[in-house]
Structures are given as structure tokens and as C-alpha cells.
Amino acid sequence: MTLDVLLGAKVECTDGAGGSCTRVTLNRATRHVAHLVVGERGLWRTERLVPIGRVRGAAHGLLHLDCSGQELSRMDPLIETGLMWTDIPELDELHFPVPLYVRRPESMEKQESPPRGELCLSRGARVQATDGKVASLDAISIHPLSGEITHLRACEKRGRKCREMVIPAAEIDHLEEESVYLKLDRNRVESLVPCLLYTSDAADEYIPV
Question: How many DSSP H helices and E strands does the chain contain?
């Protein structure tokens, strides 16, 4: 049995809606999913790192956590905010002809800070064959206990049509930030089964044909 993590899916806590799954973090060495990144509801939409062990299931497009909304709000943030400093020339009180430089805060800086040894993948991350981009990442299937990746689900859009591919984890060559590199060329990727063809009159609203 696997856990299908649809990137962008709504997240439910034990006491109600918790936000949405904006991305996942993976251990660079083992390639296991370590955390869901959950964007909280509300004005600031802080992204929280939720250990994969706190996910109790997925159904009907929802990811269910075993924690309350309050517990979620206490989990570590993915984005850290700090001050950027700059050197500004300023004459001292005695008006020396050579200005002294002081440090003043210039602006707020936001920086992603996944745990050491982990990288982020979000919906739309590039899935690269050996001869170029072949699709965009849509979902990840993992073992619910270990977080081991079993399959990737990727989508290749051509106008109003979308071709969905299921790619076994064994075909992953390596991972980089927001990119998945495969061992296969484009022709072999497109021959993978199962493959589904979708069509739509509106973006992201696909129905099988």
C-alpha cells in the first residue's frame, strides 16, 4: 500500500482545515520524503515542515494529518525571515572629513531553509529525461511508514491536452532542487504505462478522453 501525495492538495488537521501541501522535502542521500510543506491558512500563509510520519492518510484529494491546527502552527517554518544589513556612510559627532560607516537594516529577507541534507520539490518541478525536459511533477507515491518513493506522477501538457505518466522510482537517476533527472530518454518515458490522456477547456481541469 502506498500514500499518494498530490502536490497542492488540501490538508486536514484533526480539528479542521490546515492549509495546503505546497511541496515536499526529500533526503538527498536516501531519496525518502522527509516532510510535507504545509502552507497554513490565513493572511501570512506560513509554510510549516510536517514530518511525513504525521500524515495518517490521503483520500478524495485531501491529506489528513494526526495533529491539530494548533500543533501545526508550532511546527518549524520552511521560510525564515531576517534583516538584510547595509553599510551607510555617516559623519561622526565631531564631523571628521572621512565618514565612518555604520550598519543599518535595509530590508526584510526571506530565505528557504529546509533541514540540512534535504531538498524541496513542488508541483510543476521539472522532470528531465536524458535528452531534455519531458514533463512536470504532479504527485509522489511513497511508502507510508518509511517515506520511500515508489512512483512519480508527471504531466506533459500540449495545449488543452495533458498526458499523465507514472514513473517508477527505480528510473530516477538523481534529484536536484525542483528537478528530477531520469535514466530514460524521452521516447522511453513516453512509452511508460500506465499513461492517461486528459483534455480541458480550462487550465488544470482535466477529464479523461
Answer: 2, 18
Helix (H) or strand (E) holding 127: strand 126-129
User: How many residues in total does the chain contain?
Assistant: 209
| The three grid cell numbers given for residue 8, joined into one nine-digit string | 497542492
- Give the strand pairing for 16-27 and 33-40: antiparallel
C-alpha cell at 158: 500540449
Q: Is the dihedral of CA 181, 202, 60, 193 positive or negative?
A: negative
90-130 pLDDT, tens digit per residue, is 544 545 444 444 444 444 445 556 788 899 999 999 999 99
Residue with cell 504532479: 138
Phi then psi dihedrals of residue 9, to 5 deg: -70, 155
Q: Which residues contact 200 (CB under 8 A, 6 or more apart)?
A: 160, 161, 162, 206, 207
Q: Cell numbers at residue 206, please?
A: 482535466
pTM value?
0.74
| pLDDT per position as a tens digit, 195-208 | 555 554 444 444 44
- pLDDT tens digits, 37-77: 999 887 667 899 999 999 999 988 899 999 999 999 999 99
